[in-house]
Amino acid sequence: MMDVAKLARVSPSTVSLYLRRPSAVSPSAGQEIDRAISTLGYVPNLVAGGLAAASSKVVSIIVPSIRNAFFAETVSALQSELAADGLQVLLGHSEYAEDQEEALVRTALSWAPAAIVLTGLSHSAGTRKLLQASGIPVVEMWELGGKPIDMAVGFSHPQVGATAARHLLSKGRRSLAFLGARMQEDHRAEKRASGFAEAARAGGVSACEVLNHPGAATVEAGSLLLNRALQQVSGLDGIACSNDLIALGALFECQRQGIAVPDEIAVMGFGDLSFSASCIPSLTTIRPSGELIGKEVARLILGSIHGERPEGASRIVDTGHVLIERKSS
């Protein structure tokens, strides 16, 4: 660091500040420091820095699955916001298993992270105990509705399900099904299904079935689930799916069987993935703001690190959801 400071013609404390918080250093000084680091091949020792500060410059983020496109937008926004403050991301995925999540939390804590981000509010007792005892900032994202460990950013999944049911009811659909996958582990999808069924019953539908595929939420699962729904629900005329991939599989299966969408069956998804606006017919879906969730999580983390840890109601941020109506309904 002394060598970098000498070559960049700044003080060692300026180099240290730049490595911790790049935005706190003037652009011209930052450029000189970058040039010196590149010339010297200097790599900061984050472990040593963490020992000196009793915490590292790493934020641990644990998501259910890195194969799930829903979380990519959130992690990307979160990483971008944290990097501007000199923080790096350590990403892990639990495959929807609470014991695996607990193991990842133990590993993350051994690195003295600046903060930990979890997905959802359902965790093992061991995970809660570890995090409550750690004293570090903890943000649970992508779900609201329970008591968070520390802070939470997200939305109500039962309300998402209710929005889907009410939309189908408003289109005159009265024989409904919710198609989901891995809901025995994906508690958020299960809550969307519960909210859908409750709102459907309140609307007086003639039939409403919740169907679960035990494997991953894929296009193939959507095809299988639609076939099951056709067999189990008499006069099926409306379906909501736990995500857009399942909805896409349902659309493909309708095309294979010559079922007109939306004339015979209206189809809804969740997530507003990149293909949803361009598939045929375009997919009605519900958009959660993944990017906004990432930015709000970063805001809470950075505030906590810089001595502005939120209190009371400000510890919980509701990012809401938006119905995107397209041709499939």
Please specify the SSE layout and strand pairing.
Layout: H1 2-8, H2 12-20, H3 27-40, H4 46-53, E1 58-63, H5 69-83, E2 88-93, H6 98-109, E3 115-119, H7 125-134, E4 138-141, E5 151-154, H8 157-170, E6 175-181, H9 187-202, E7 207-213, H10 219-232, E8 238-241, H11 244-257, E9 266-268, E10 285-288, H12 290-305, E11 316-318, E12 321-324
Parallel strand pairs: 1-2, 1-3, 3-4, 4-5, 5-11, 6-7, 6-8, 8-9
Antiparallel strand pairs: 10-12
Helix pairs in contact: 1-2, 1-3, 5-12, 6-7, 8-9, 10-11
Protein name: Substrate-binding domain-containing protein
Pfam families: LacI, Peripla_BP_3
Domain HTH lacI-type: 1-53
What does this structure look like?
The chain has a 6-stranded parallel beta sheet, sandwiched between helices. The protein has a 4-stranded parallel beta sheet with strand order 7-6-8-9, with helices on both faces. It has 12 helices and 12 strands. Helix 11 links the parallel strand 8 and strand 9. The protein has helices at residues 2-8, 12-20, 27-40, 46-53, 69-83, 98-109, 125-134, 157-170, 187-202, 219-232, 244-257, 290-305, and strands spanning 58-63, 88-93, 115-119, 138-141, 151-154, 175-181, 207-213, 238-241, 266-268, 285-288, 316-318, 321-324. Helix 10 (219-232) crosses helix 11 (244-257). With 329 residues, the protein is α/β, with parallel strands linked by helices. Helices cover 45% and strands 17% of the residues. The protein has 3 domains: 2-44, no CATH class; 51-155 and 290-320, Rossmann fold (3-Layer(aba) Sandwich), CATH 3.40.50; 157-288, Response regulator (Rossmann fold, 3-Layer(aba) Sandwich), CATH 3.40.50.2300.
